[in-house]
Amino acid sequence: xxxxxxxxxxxxxAFFPGNQxxxxxKSVFAAAFHRWSAVAPLTFTETEDYSNTDIRVGFFGGDxxxxxxxxxxxxxxxHALEPPSGRLHLDEAENWVLSGEIEVxxxxxxxxxxxxxxxxHLLGLGHSSDESAIMFPSIxxxxxxxxxxxxxxxxxxxxxxxxxDFNGTSTPSVQGRDSSAARNLQERRWGVSFLLAVGFxxxxx
Length: 205
Hints:
Elements: E1 10-15, H1 23-37, E2 43-46, E3 55-60, E4 78-80, E5 87-91, E6 96-97, E7 109-110, H2 111-122, E8 138-139, H3 150-160, H4 180-183, E9 202-203
Parallel strand pairs: 1-2, 1-3, 3-5, 6-7
Antiparallel strand pairs: 4-5, 8-9
């Protein structure tokens, strides 16, 4: 399984300078990173040095140079590459909302929910077949889903071991990170399909 080596567990991240990311957006990402570092012996520190950071986060549109073009609203939400690439790109065209705003626009996309999912990929996790998991490959529109499930925790502990301060109550178990259900979806990272019917869902990778 891909993972960050033992010599790189204190990771830095930076935002694409051209985005001029707000303090509120930075706070959302800080919270998303913390959800993972609370479980495993990893730290994430924001830096301004985009060229020399471990993880690069940016909002882009269309063809942005990585061979995986974004396709506008309701298309691909985001994509992230496994270690040690450290790239997390989000589609700037989406209707992103911050924590607490999701209920006012049910078709909007909760930024922290996407960030937590994509950070899981950055750490080496694939998709899970557990519907309660962050790494499950679908989510309802207007849904906020940011708490790690036991399946997410088990996968992370398998890769990195436990944070000494982690107070988990379940014994970690080995579970598949890339489920057959996930493989049966379209091979796009966090690819999104809107099913225009009552109770439509978002599918993503």
